[in-house]
Design a protein that fits this description.
Shape: elongated
Largest sheet: 5 strands, parallel
Pfam family, one: Response_reg
Oligomer: single chain
Keywords: DNA-binding, Phosphoprotein
Number of strands: 11
Organism: Streptosporangium algeriense
Protein name: Response regulator transcription factor
Distance between the termini: 25 Å
Number of helices: 8
Length: 229
Amino acid sequence: MNRVLVVDDEPYLADLVATALRYEGFETATAATGAETVSLVGTFRPDLVVLDVMLPDVLGTEVCHRIRTAGSEVPVVFLTALDATEDKIGGLTAGGDDYVTKPFSLEELIARIRAVLRRTAGRPDPGDGRLTFADLVIDEDAHEVWRSGRRIDLTPTEFKLLRFLAANPGKVVSKRRILDHVWEYDFGGNDGVVQTYISYLRRKVDAFAPPLIHTVPRVGYVLRLPRDD
């Protein structure tokens, strides 16, 4: 269950968004000030923050800056009545991942939240040394991999390959890039080793549903959830 922190100084609006998110299966918390937001990022540990720009004590862009300065890479979706282009650029420059203007539909906001969560699913958390994607957890400090709560034993090369895919969620990486980042030396053009190790990973990681490692013909490989199409 993803946790979302909803920040707005209008209690009715914060509660409305939080209630809609809970109905969609999210765990939620609310805040009304910048100071409360920074505190809850550390204690509630949200997977995403919906952040109003106009707060009573400090601008939301400054709150985002403080969160980033503190080392958190939690995704931030700004929610504000400020719809000028320079306001949107300022929000994204401050470290935001998306920018939704008021008035808005709850359906659009939830769709934007889901899109940001998918896009940032493999973002590392400096606080615990882990990469996560769907139900896959890569503990870099312990050099362990877990899926659906079960530990998966990987060789050092398999671990390094999976870690590289997880560091680029949703991005197709070529065999050549994988060779450069995982093996770190030239195979003399023999990239068949990549296909071999991808097959090893699939036997272990994709033994659970849904499959996460996908082939893009003539391009490379990508870590993502299956698509409906």
